[in-house]
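Action item from last week, closing it out:
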Amino acid sequence: MSGKYDKILKEIIGKSIRVFVKKILGINAVKITLLNTRMQITNEREADFILRIEERGKAPYIIHIEIQSVNYAKMPERMLFYWLLINEKYDEYPKQYLFYIGNAPLTMPNHVPKIGKGYKYEIIDFHDIDCEKFINSGKPEEIVISILCNFRGNDGKIMKRLVIQKIREAVADEMLRSKYFRQIQVLSQLKGLGETEGEEEEDMLIYDVEKDPYYKRGLMEGELRGELRGELRGELKGEIKGLLEGIQLALDIKYGVDGLSLMKKISAIGDLTKLEQIMELIRHSASVDDLRNLPD
């Protein structure tokens, strides 16, 4: 997997990898074990997913899944390289699958042309998967995946709004709903649907942290400490703690790992006014790059 979507794609698909194994690959496993994907050679390589599969009546075996959002001419050679490395690490040749989730038509072969079809792997093109397989499941992780699938000729922007509505119906908690909205926003860009305008898009991108229970709890703790101790300093400390918790949650929901990387700098700020300014910046930011020059 390569490109700016790497981390979020791996996070989203990793949460639903068992769904992919069952619904996409048709494997009815009784047990799935995630194996270490790091393989140490001269330069360390990391595959997307390596799984040990156990099915009834069959010997356990390994499958390797790579996620690709763009056509890459050297993908067959990369898959072959992983095939050899996995055998070296686990003494077993894996069954390999390439999940193609890009917007452009698939052009990559499933074998290395120079050596023929003696070695090949299976490509799952999400253009061929009916979104109905996921969109009506009632499970938010599967509903999110439907944005990558075939809309069967329906307008993409209409389908995106339908996916958003399905998440609203399936997830009551505002904090969790905002997390899924962020995932939909990222994945929809792969389908060329990132520029949808309207109320739905605004709901997806702006999470009101002041409604979050962790944020409220922090403020309440600050007020309580102030009342019990009769100290303004205790109250202020509690408010700062609550606001920091809210900022951390907002960064995680909106930008994941990239957003949380800013917490080390933010946690060192003890000024309530500056922290409130940072929260406003987060709420109205379009990308994590908008937050690189936060006030000290």
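Closing note: Residues 205-209, 225-232 have pLDDT under 50 and may be disordered.
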